[in-house]
Amino acid sequence: MSDLTITVPRPPLPGFTLPLTAVLGAIFGFVAGNVYGQPWIGALGGAAVGVVIAYLAHAMSHKRTATRWGIIAVLALAGLLAGGLGAALSGVIIGAVMSWFAYWLDSGDYRKNVPIYYSAGQTLWYNSFLFICGLVFFFLIAPLLPVMWLSFNAEDFFTFTPEMLNFQAEGYSLKHYRNFLGTEEWMTPLKNSLIIAPFATFISVSLGTLAAIGLSQSHVPGRQAIMAVLISPMIVPLIISATGMFFFYAPLGNWLEANLGLSQNFVGYVKVILAHAALGVPFVIITVTATLVGFDRSLTRAAANMGADPITTFFRVQMPLILPGVISGGLFAFITSFDEVVVVLFVGSAQQQTLPWQMFTGLREQISPTILAAATILVTVSILLLATVELLRRRSERLRGLSPG
Amino acid sequence: MSDATQTGPVLAADGSPLKRSLARTLRRQKLRALLLISPLLVFVLVTFIVPIVSMLFRSVENQIVAHTLPQTVEALQDWNPDAGEPPSEAVFEALYFDMFKAAEAKRHTQVGNRLNYEQPGLSSMFRGTGRDLDDIGEEFEDVFVGIDPAFKTSEFWFELLSGEGGESFLDDRRALYAAMLGESMRGDVGFLPSAEMVSLLPATSAAYTDFAIWTAIEKEDVVAEERPWEAVYAGLGVDLRSPEVVAEIGSYSGPGADILKAAVASRDQLPQASFQEMFAESDEDWLDVEGWRTMSLYSPDYTTGYFLNSVDLQKTIDGVEARPETQQIYIKLFIRTLYMSLIITGACILLGYPVAWILANLPLRTANVLMILVLLPFWTSLLVRTSAWKVLLQQQGVINEILVWLGFVADDGRLVLMNNATGTIIAMTHILLPFMILPLYSVMKTIPPSYLRAAKSLGATNWTAFWRVYFPQSVPGIGAGSILVFILAIGYYITPEIVGGTDGVFISNRIAYHISSSLNWGLAAALGTILLLVVLALYWLYDQIVGIDNVKLGG
Amino acid sequence: MKLTTTLMASTALVVAAGSAFADGHAKMADSMTVVSWGGAYQKSQQNAYTIPYKEMHDGLEVVWDESSAEAVAKLRAMDEAGSVTWDVVDVVAADALRLCDEGLAIEIDPEKDLAAAPDGTSAEEDFGELLVGDCFIPQIVYSTTFGYRTDMVAEGVDPPSQICDVFDLEKYPGKRSLEKRPINNVEWALLCDGVAKEDVYDVLATEEGQQQALDKLATIKDDVIWWSAGADTPQLLADGEVFMGSTYNGRLFAAIEEQKQPIGMMWDAQVFDLDGWIIPANLPEDRLHRAMDFVKFATDTQRLADQAKYISYGPARASSAPLVGQHAELGIDMAPHMPTDPNNAANTFLYNYEFWADYRDDIDAKFQAWLAQ
Question: Which of B47, B408, B548 sits opposite A248 (nearest CB)?
Fold first, then answer.
């Protein structure tokens, strides 16, 4: 079947691309016209623009990039003349979306990802489904955009000033970044969070994985009850956990200080780390037991047969296979500690102030976009981390000669 | 050997019967499983379960009243709350000495605070009267000192009241202290009550013994060198009011007998007012029957009061009643918490399902990039995301500004998107969505796409293929995601506090208020226990329907 | 106001907590944990109190804990657990009263434990009736009052100047922000419902009075955004989200003078409240000595006046008032921005601690139920 290629016929202009692009244009036109109180006139105009764009896309199908830039430029200019900078920006967006839409329809790309036997209705459903998913992704990401934008605010409020909206330089400032990176007030909590979260994660992951392996054996007496106990830190409302745990950790701390001669500061970290480890346990248990449900037990038996001792079996056979579950459990545990404010507020003392704690007092006492700068930096770092991990994964795939999945 | 195996039980390789060998293996397996589980189990039990259970136990504890005012509570047993009369003089007398002792240890205000949760006004009644207790005693003291200056000296009192045979009396008083303070109060008091005086001057001996224990153990002073409390003078005043005591003093001949007799002779000069009158003079609300009813209702060591309060009921002298409508709030909050958590869970399923599907079905390359979009909000602090929603949702916020600019919403008709339930639902759906997507994704990843194709090639429509083939296999993912989202939602309080306004707050907000502001930890614990029981019931239900093993979180 | 009677009674009862080390040679701990609120307020305390104090005491380490908002709960938990890690705690007077009632703070003898004014006036006289409760060492007078958006007042209408303008939706349409608790709000409501100032707490002590206050609040309930953190109202005003809102006067000062927001102050019926120090009960000897020594220093006349350079809260000592100078950075005179300035204090309202200690839980329950309706 190597030579069999199926070419999707190019859809007809008047019966398909033209009306659909016109409808999209009408929607945009309706919205734009509404700004001036004339939605229907706008819709009409928009439809006309849509017709023109559809025609252009059809006629200039081989000069896609150039035509699209042309359309964007024209609409941006029209916007600039009609309503200034904001409207010009809208023009750019509308031009980009509509020209992409027209070409997408005209070139038949809209069927690229669906099986050839799909009917028109199924194709429509598939593409609408993608659109809906796109909206959900937008919902997930959208709140982060104002956070990043406002972190450059020249004022000390979470407010878009007129200067910011008009893109004037005096509305922007890096002072919140300077404040975050340059003061003890923020760097110490960051340092504390970076000390506490990994240790807490380590404890919950190591103990949690062992326990999950134990739980996955076939004959465990009182399995349900044990499971309920181990999952309980997730269930109890945090404020109750916080006060309850305080009563355990305070005497424990006293004991450690008095009997082992440890410094108060060190003991403080131990207390918060243990408390956060307890909170992270359920996530590890849930993920790792779930991975172990699908684990093929004959593999460990095979390993044992071939003379591996239990420890070797665990690290060489079992561990690599359940690693994804362990990692995602660890991720949840890490986030739990890194983002936890209620328990640390009670169990911790001033020397263990974590980043969320500092943010919490910041929000309560003196609203300052510094917390937005902190968030922006964290988001950027995590994007870089996640992207690096993904790139490394692809590289190792390439090296192992696997086709990119 | 071969013959034996033919007829006897099946043997394992080591020669023991197979049945036993298998049982041993099973036992060893169980043991190994428990060994693996035990470190974590012990860790969670000790660092979490024990502290939480003891915290929740506060929801029934109520020893403070009986421990701080033991004699009053005992005397109050005889009082008839329905009669509409304040209690007898005996109760007020007991209250005076109980309270004096408690005031020295600064405990009387704690009782006041405890009772104030049930009836406003009692807190300042206890605090205010606590300041007048010395004055009441001083009235007696002045008269006694006027009769004989020896009453002023510490030696006189010590000699008068110390003696032999009072060990058990001392231990009883010590036990009362230990109960009130929660400390052992062990140690040498340097004073032993005389058994004779204990029976002759019971109130005086009791007050002086209390004074002695407090002085020696807590203040670490020498009893014989310290001036006694004003309550000791009041004690003697009380004792001298009894005709029997007066009669017996006539035949008394021990130390200080002359001075005592002089005091008896001039006892007309002593204040004649009853303790009831003296308390009423300090605060007339002591005569209020309602306050006493509250005290008698909350005098037992354990109470159902907190639990009743947390379901909008209250204890009254006639049994359990509904609270006045203006104070009913908790049932409403519980229902709202459950209802809104359900809506949030539903919204997360609706939004999360398509996204998880697309992540599971796209090529790994694209899916991983999109996965970053799901994880990003996760990496952003909850506080920041909540503040971001504030910026977006408020009336002068981004969404309203855009809608106004586009002309869809009039400037004076901006949408109210936050400080109400809508705000809480939107923000919490966003915050909890990754907890739905990740488990759904990991389950969907395991469903082979060929099943759907097979269904379709067998003639199923798209819908049938999805609904009858794909969806049932994804149910464990929905279950896992739902239980996670629901449980997390039900206990949230920071987000509702910030964006919830008045009708978007949860029961956890009230729990937090009672923990950190009103200090009504008993009520907070009762509310928390109820919430926990609801969650556990749901968890059990979930385990019955889906099975907790099927919960998957990413991976 | 029962302040004076409280004062008299409290001094009669005072326990000489400081007398044990009146000789001044006692050993003092070389590290001290000070608990405060964070933000600009804590900075003003650092500048005025701890920086000069550390200069006087070489090798002293001061740790700041921003936990004042949870102070009552945390101190109680610490006390039960038997390890109090705080040495000096900044709390509002109502919390101090509660801590004192719970036996979690030590009682103070102003004569012995606090410094006299430079002219020899005793501390007791200098603080006057601000010494509420037996454990509380006043530091500042702050007030809860209203700010409004100057640019949102309609043409031809005078800016709001009376407390009852808050309840006048016709003249001053727009949202208001009020604190999500009954305290202050119910007093204002009664004042604007025809109750005389001196009767407010008597009326509030009755069921009908409480209902009357809630009914009055109900007239604006739809237009109220309820705040719970001190930073909320300035943010809401800056956003134009509300027309007017109650908050602490220092927050409004910062928004107006430091951030140059178009906000005006309305001082009418401002409710005076106090913030100050308490020293936790059951401290070890050396830490107690350190805490007492610090508090004596930090509440002397000059130190209290110095704090006003950084934040617009009034010093709690009468003798500090003439020493209040200019803002450390802005260089403007601070006196006119103090809640205690005669121009601002023409009509003030005094918070009744005793009343709220009794009725807080009860009225709060009703208030929350009312909010949820």
Answer: B47
Set of chain B residues whose Cβ sits within 8 Å of the Cβ of C175: 395
> Which of the 8 DSSP states describes residue B325?
G
Q: Decide if B396 and C241 are in contact by the 8 Å CB cutoff.
A: yes
3-state secondary structure labels for all residues of chain A: CCCCCCCCCCCCHHHHHHHHHHHHHHHHHHHHHHHCCCHHHHHHHHHHHHHHHHHHHHHCCCCHHHHHHHHHHHHHHHHHHHHHHHHHHHHHHHHHHHHHHHHHHHCCHHHCCCCCCCCHHHHHHHHHHHHHHHHHHHHHHCCHHHHHHHCCECCCCCCCCHHHHCCCHHHECCHHHHHHHHCHHHHHHHHHHHHHHHHHHHHHHHHHHHHHHHHCCCCCCCHHHHHHHHHHHHHCCHHHHHHHHHHHHHHHHHHHHHHHCCCHHHHHHHHHHHHHHHHHHHHHHHHHHHHHHCCCCHHHHHHHHCCCCHHHHHHHHHHHHHHHHHHHHHHHHHHHHHCCCHHHHHHCCHHHCCHHHHHHHHHHHCCCCHHHHHHHHHHHHHHHHHHHHHHHHHHHHHHCCCCCC
Q: Are B306 and B60 in contact (CB under 8 A)?
A: yes
Contact B515 C372 (CB under 8 A): no
Grade residue A61 by pLDDT with cuts at 50, 70 and 90. confident
Give the separation between CA C320 and CA C300, rounded to whole angstroms: 8
Provide the residue type at B501 as one letter.
G
Q: Are residues C53 and C21 in contact, defined by beta-carbon separation less than 8 angstroms?
A: no
Surface of C (235-264) touching B: CB under 8 A? 239-241
Contact at 8 Å (CB) between C226 and C177?
yes
Closest CB to A247: pick one of C38, C81, C238. Answer: C81
Test C240 with B396 for CB contact under 8 angstroms. Answer: yes
Q: Which stretches does DSSP call E strand in B270-374?
A: 313-316, 319-322
Between chains, do B29 and A360 touch, taking CB under 8 Å as contact?
Answer: no
8 Å CB contact of C39 and A361: yes
B44/A233 touch (CB, cutoff 8 Å), yes or no: yes
Size of interface A-B (CB pairs under 8 A): 304
CB contact (8 A) between residue B501 and residue C226: yes
Cα C235 to chain centroid, rounded: 20
Distance (Å) from the alpha carbon of C64 to chain B's nearest alpha carbon: 20
Residues of chain B with pLDDT under 50: 1-5, 552-555
* Residue of chain C nearest A353, judged by CA positions: C65
CB B552 within 8 A of CB B442: yes
Measured between alpha carbons, how far is B162 from C69 in angstroms, rounded to an integer?
50
**E-only strand ranges, C44-134:** 61-65, 88-92
Choose from A140, A186, A368 for mutation: most chain B CBs within 10 A: A140
Question: pTM for the full model?
Answer: 0.89
C293-325 pLDDT, tens digit each: 999 999 999 999 999 999 999 999 999 988 988
Task: Please judge whether C39 and A353 are an interchain contact, meaning their C-beta atoms are less than 8 angstroms apart.
Answer: no
User: Residue range A92-111: average pLDDT?
Assistant: 90
Q: Residue C228: which pLDDT band, with cuts at 50, 70 and 90? A: confident
The 10 Å CB-count burial string (b at 16+, else e) for C307-336 is: bbbbbbbbbbbbbbbeebeebeeeeeebbe
- Considering only CB atoms, A404 lies closest to which of B365, B434, B442, namely B365
Q: How far is C369 from chain B (nearest CA, A)?
A: 5
Beta bridge partners of B165: B194
Which other chains touch chain A, taking contact as 3+ CB pairs less than 8 Å apart?
B, C
Q: What is the ipTM of this complex?
A: 0.86
How many Å lie between the alpha carbon of C267 and the closest alpha carbon of chain A? 22
